[in-house]
Design a protein that fits this description.
- By secondary structure, the protein is an alpha/beta fold.
- The protein folds into two domains: 265 residues, 3-Layer(aba) Sandwich (Rossmann fold); 183 residues, Glycogen Phosphorylase B (Rossmann fold, 3-Layer(aba) Sandwich), CATH 3.40.50.2000.
- The chain is 37% helix and 19% strand.
- It has 18 helices and 18 strands.
- The strands form three sheets. Strands 3-4-5-2-1-6-7-11-12 form a nine-stranded mixed β-sheet, with helices on both faces.
- The longest helix is centred in the last third of the chain and has 17 residues.
- It is globular.
- The structure holds adenosine-5'-diphosphate.
């Protein structure tokens, strides 16, 4: 089985969220299971600088507004997986995020930047780019790669199959319909049964309409996106694909997120020897200038600061939580209004609330190891990784019962308890769950330790889910055409 994963980000080269972690760990797990896996990435500066042993495969020439486009083949650092890189300086060589500038504005030529990615993916899979390699399956991640599915479906003589994974339904890649000619896709797909979405052009629809199989990153989210509440206008498109849509839970990279070997934390520990966690907690309190208070529940947040993540609920609950003795450490970046509000909260509760606005991988590890609990109060959450990192680090997750959070965290009150779960998206419900955790920790340390050990012993690694994807590829390979539009 030859699989081409196509994505805009991959850890450790470029990461804005969980997508990068998945695109790093899933292909590596599949390779260990015998699949022949390669990646295709845009040649962002950190990708060009970070890959190893790059050599040219083909000069593609002028396209999508760029004068010089080349395809390179290189190796990923760490895993050594083969990775194709699109070297198109005019489109990709700029500082900022993969999607926009430092000010948070999207790049105005994102349509061309990601149309190129999907177009090359389909050609590479169909033996039209690297004469030494082709793919059986193109696995396109999020809207950035979705056009690959339309191009694969468009080729009348190809037996390549495509799989589209939705990492977040909220990001759809919408552009003005009048830019259609820039796409390089036949105009017969310019209809509501194709890429058109309420008078706009939707990259995500290229995945939803034309992929042979659609996956999302947790079973609960797979159900949720078929509803108006979570579908962001595309729930009808999801429902119309019926059983072609499946939820496969993300795993975590058990080598990167492992307190027994983590070089970024003050002391190593595991489920049998938790003393190291106490040392990490003391080190974190000292580092961040928090009182060395043993009884305080030390709560962590590691998150994009966006409405999705429900952190406005935490802000509203903070006075009550601080008054009850809870300590909070937050690491995040995102919406300026939330950044400012958390900065102000840290000033109002100095010594009790510490806020670091920024993106800092090593600090994320220190917070996970040092905190007692990690809170994820999301309004919606496709899978969520930080609650799983929390389980692995003996840092009990406090989550809202939604998406992948509902699939991975079970309330301490039940027989499978490994954290704390609440339902309503309100500051009151959030505060009640946090205070419940705080009480349990001081009043019943034995149960707390049992919950920690249950989370730490759980198998959260990728092997099982990677195998499910491989089975899905086999099903797709045996399938006929694409149901839905344009066929
Ligand atoms: P999402 O993809 O919606 O942002 P996930 O929970 O799936 O949420 O993944 C978030 C990933 O990004 C995790 O690996 C988390 O540790 C990391 N992360 C988020 N914010 C920061 C930050 N400010 N600094 C370091 N890592 C962060």
């Amino acid at each position: 089985m030859r699989v081409l994963h196509v994505a805009a980000e991959v850890y450790p080269l470029v990461k804005t969220g969980g997508l990068a972690d998945v695109v790093a760990a899933l292909p590596a797990a599949q390779a260990r299971q015998g699949a022949e896996v390669r990646l295709l990435l845009p040649g962002l500066p950190s990708v060009m600088d970070g890959v190893q042993h790059a050599r040219p495969v083909i000069d593609i020439g002028s396209c999508f507004g760029a004068l010089r486009v080349r395809l390179l083949l290189a190796r990923m650092p760490g895993t050594g997986l083969p990775v194709y890189v699109l070297d198109a300086p005019y489109l990709y060589r700029r500082t900022g995020s993969p999607y926009g500038n430092h000010g948070g504005e999207e790049w105005p030529d994102n349509l061309q930047r990601f149309a190129l990615l999907g177009w090359v993916a389909a050609h590479l899979a169909a033996d039209d780019a690297d004469l030494k390699w082709r793919a059986d399956i193109v696995h396109a991640h999020d809207w950035h790669a979705a056009l690959a599915c339309a191009h694969v479906a468009d080729h009348p003589a190809s037996d390549v199959r495509s799989v589209f994974t939705i990492h977040n339904m909220a990001f759809q890649g919408l552009f003005p319909l009048h830019d259609w000619p820039l796409l390089g896709l036949a105009s017969r797909h310019m209809s509501p049964a194709g890429l058109e979405f309420h008078g706009q052009l939707s990259f995500m629809k290229a995945g939803l309409q034309y992929a042979h199989r659609i996956t999302t990153v947790s079973p609960t989210y797979a159900h949720e996106i078929a509803t108006a509440e979570f579908g962001f206008g595309l729930d009808g498109a999801i429902r119309s694909r019926g059983a072609d849509v499946v939820g496969i839970l993300n795993g975590i990279d058990a080598d990167v997120w492992n307190p027994a070997i983590d070089p970024a934390i003050a002391a190593r520990y595991d489920d049998a020897r938790l003393e190291g966690k106490r040392a990490c907690r003391e080190a974190l309190q000292a580092e961040l200038g928090l009182a060395a208070d043993d009884d305080a529940l030390l709560l962590a947040v590691i998150s994009r600061l966006s409405a999705q993540k429900g952190l406005d609920l935490l802000l509203a609950a903070l006075p009550q939580l601080a008054a009850a003795g809870v300590q909070l450490v937050l690491l995040g970046t995102g919406e300026p209004s939330l950044e400012a509000a958390f900065r102000m909260a840290s000033e109002a509760h100095a010594g009790r609330v510490h806020v670091h606005i920024g993106y800092d991988e090593a600090r994320a590890h220190r917070l996970l190891a040092g905190a007692d609990a990690i809170v994820v109060p999301s309004r919606f959450e496709p899978c969520g990784l930080t609650q799983m990192y929390g389980l692995r680090y003996g840092t009990l997750p406090i989550v809202r019962r939604v998406g992948g959070l509902a699939d991975t965290v079970h309330d301490a009150g039940g027989t499978q308890g490994n954290g704390f779960v609440f339902d309503e998206a309100t500051p009151t419900a959030l505060a009640a769950a946090v205070l419940r955790a705080a009480r349990l920790r001081t009043q019943d340390p034995k149960t707390w330790r049992m919950l920690q050990q249950r989370g730490m012993a759980a198998d959260l690694a990728w092997a099982g889910s990677a195998r499910r994807y491989l089975q899905l590829y086999r099903d797709a390979a045996g399938s006929a055409g694409v149901p839905g539009a344009g066929r």
